[in-house]
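Work Package 4 report. The design task specified in the project plan requires that, given a folded chain encoded as structure tokens, an amino acid be chosen for each position. We show below one input record used in the internal validation round.
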């Protein structure tokens, strides 16, 4: 049976609850039923920002804070006052050590989630920022309009923003898993351990690339195409905006891509 916590406004409704919980206002605490292996937090919302912070406890704590825009005092328009609909809240489900968080389509909360350090994350929002700090695991974050900021994280990172900068500081990198940082419009600024080793793919159409690593540049993005002619010849075109190289002799795959913006690959001091 799947335990589910459903929160609407400041009222907590419990459906099929199989273990203890507690709530204070817009807050849900999910106890650790199986602490022998890491947990995963899966958040997907339409509007709003998500902040995840590691702490020393074992529970996962999900809090919803109304954005300052929605909390402002209603303005007066020609003698009328705006009537605000109540918040639709959010829902939290847990099954097999995966905590799933969803919100209503019409809501735009600021979610603050406290997790044990060894927690993997899958965070997605259409309009809002994604932040994580102190987490060690598999981190997959994606926002359409917003910034991504990951601070003192470890493990593997897949970070994407269509419109917004990406800033990442990693304490440790899992050498067996790839890294990927991409944005259409924004700067990518990634700080990695000094002993980081990787095979790197770099792509920026309108920007510069900077790094203080021992970086050995390889070839450009060569593309081989067959001509549609009777002689059967092949044509090779080189995209100078896409380059490959190695850091500290090479290792796991690491991709950095932005269409409009600079790329900074920094060595952690």
């Amino acid at each position: 049976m799947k335990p589910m916590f459903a929160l609407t406004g400041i009222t907590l409704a419990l459906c099929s609850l199989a273990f203890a919980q507690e709530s204070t206002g817009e807050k849900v605490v999910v106890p650790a039923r199986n602490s022998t292996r890491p947990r995963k937090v899966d958040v997907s919302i339409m509007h709003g920002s998500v902040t995840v912070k590691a702490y020393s406890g074992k529970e996962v704590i999900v809090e919803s804070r109304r954005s300052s825009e929605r909390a402002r005092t209603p303005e007066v328009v020609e003698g009328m006052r705006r009537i605000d609909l109540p918040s639709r809240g959010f829902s939290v489900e847990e099954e097999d050590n995966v905590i799933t968080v969803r919100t209503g389509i019409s809501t735009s909360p600021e979610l603050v989630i406290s997790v044990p350090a060894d927690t993997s994350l899958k965070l997605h929002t259409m309009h809002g920022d994604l932040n994580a700090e102190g987490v060690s695991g598999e981190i997959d974050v994606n926002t359409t309009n917003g910034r991504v900021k990951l601070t003192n994280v470890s493990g593997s990172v897949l970070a994407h923003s269509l419109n917004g900068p990406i800033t990442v500081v990693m304490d440790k990198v899992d050498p067996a898993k790839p890294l990927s940082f991409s944005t259409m419009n924004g700067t990518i600024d990634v700080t990695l351990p000094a002993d980081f080793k990787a095979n790197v793919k770099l792509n920026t159409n309108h920007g510069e690339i900077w790094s203080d690593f021992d970086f050995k540049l390889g070839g450009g993005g060569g593309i081989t195409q067959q001509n549609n002619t009777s002689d059967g010849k092949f044509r090779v075109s080189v995209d100078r905006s896409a380059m490959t190289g190695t850091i500290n002799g090479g290792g796991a795959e690491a991709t950095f891509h932005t269409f409009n913006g600079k790329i900074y690959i920094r060595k952690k001091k």
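The longest strand covers residues 148-163. Validation will be extended to a larger panel in the next phase.
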